[in-house]
Each structure stands twice: as C-alpha cells, then as structure tokens.
Write a structure and sequence with these properties.
single chain; alpha+beta; 3 helices; 24% helix
C-alpha cells in the first residue's frame, strides 16, 4: 500500500515477471490463503491427514459440503464393501457416515472445521487408525 518509488518498482517486477511464470499466481494464492496449511492432528501421519479437505466431489453427485452443514464429523467411506460403516458405533449423533465407493480415492474422516483427521492408506492398520482418530476427535 506504500506509494514510494521502491515499492512501485517491486510491484512492477512481481507483476510483470513473477506472475508471468505459469502456475505462480495459483501458488501465491494458495500460500497466502492457507490452503496449503497442514495441521498436526495425529502422530506419524502424512498428507492428506491434517490438510483442508475442501469441497470433495462424491460419486453420488453430492459434495462433502452437503453432508457437513450440521457441524458433524463426516466419514467418507470409499471402500467397496462399506467396511467403515460401523466405525462410529454409538456416535451417530456426532459422525455422519457417507458411503462413496471409489477405489481411486482414500476414505476420509473430516472434522467439522474441514480438516482431515484420518485417511485410509489401504494398509493393514487403517481400521485401527480410524478407531484411534474417532476416539481422539469424537470422544
């Protein structure tokens, strides 16, 4: 917002040079908006756990946001056999289960603030880690 000559020169370099690089504008917007922020929500986890889920498109044509209006945790179960359907056992008032069979995407437990608390990495420990995440975040 400064109006001095040095700032004007910097503005010109950034506008003419940096933002002319393909993808630079998208990267700067992502960095400044917090989209790339990752939160430490569990021990020894990797992305996408801790990142913002965004408005995930579901196979049914619905979106993650369609299931998140009530401030509940959303368990997007992308397993073909619905193996996570009972994971919230007794916590249905706090967790909504959304079946969305899609082997190309991981199942997710999304907190009410949109942060991914668990993602199925298709490993042997997936259900155990989901149970830990639900206990930690849902209670």
């Amino acid at each position: 917002m400064r109006g001095d000559e040095r700032t004007a020169q910097l503005r010109k370099v950034v506008g003419d040079e940096l933002f002319a690089v393909p993808g630079a504008t998208d990267r700067m917007v992502a960095l400044s908006s917090g989209i790339l922020q990752r939160y430490d929500v569990a021990d020894d986890t990797t992305a996408p756990v801790g990142s913002i889920a965004g408005d995930v498109d579901l196979k049914s044509g619905a979106r993650l946001a369609d299931h998140a209006h009530d401030g509940l945790f959303v368990l997007v179960d992308r397993s073909a056999d619905g193996r996570y359907a009972d994971a919230a056992g007794g916590r249905e008032e706090r967790v909504v289960h959304v079946p969305d069979p899609d082997a190309s995407q991981p199942s997710l437990l999304v907190r009410p603030d949109g942060i991914i608390a668990w993602a199925d990495a298709s490993g042997d420990q997936a259900r155990k880690l989901l149970d830990i995440a639900i206990q930690r975040w849902v209670g």
